[in-house]
């Protein structure tokens, strides 16, 4: 047990040193960093403002079964998805296909394999973009606004459900990043289909699932279980029934769905690393 903790502290120290190197390199050009951080925040701000300014003119967003969603309720759903995705992007940025494909194409991924340090740890520490912190702060602000606008008798269970939702989404989208990055071992370039699932999936779950058609909603519930990540937990917190007669317990599955996909993704990653042959560069 003592050796386990010693190794864990050693790996944590190495990871922090990698992040420190990333932070120092990004801070070397402060004006460029400030502009990047501002631009990153404006992406989320513009997207949120697009519906926050329009929705009040229509009163509410109404789904297929006549359920009306107020701006505060949609803001809570949107903010949770954005907060989880940006945190995931901050942590798993090294596995993002465009980043990893660059290492595969240039041959620098082979240097990762030769270093006397865990490969996964090196990839985790290869892209830690501090500019994304501004999006984290803005997303947290949107969540706070949504929480202040909904009428809910808050309990510890509600708080844990939303926390589990964020953790589940981080693991879920992190798993998609790992799968997309692993595919570049064979394709070299990133696969656009993965971007549809990753970025398209994030956009899809940012809004109430009942505004979509039945086929799309059922696809992202039973084939790709994205609805379990944030839509069901928010429905439960708001005191609304889950669709298709699903039990309330389904709203608690986010912390299981996300890590399950992440575990499968890292199994695929290990398979890919065993069969990695490089590009000859």
TrEMBL record:
Transmembrane regions listed in the UniProt entry: 33-55, 76-95, 160-186, 219-239, 245-269
| Tree of life domain | Bacteria
The record's annotation in InterPro entries points to: ABC-2_transporter-like
Kindly state which keywords UniProt assigns to this record, in alphabetical order.
Answer: Membrane, Transmembrane, Transmembrane helix
Protein name listed in UniProt? Putative ABC transporter, permease component
The species this protein was found in: Deinococcus deserti (strain DSM 17065 / CIP 109153 / LMG 22923 / VCD115)
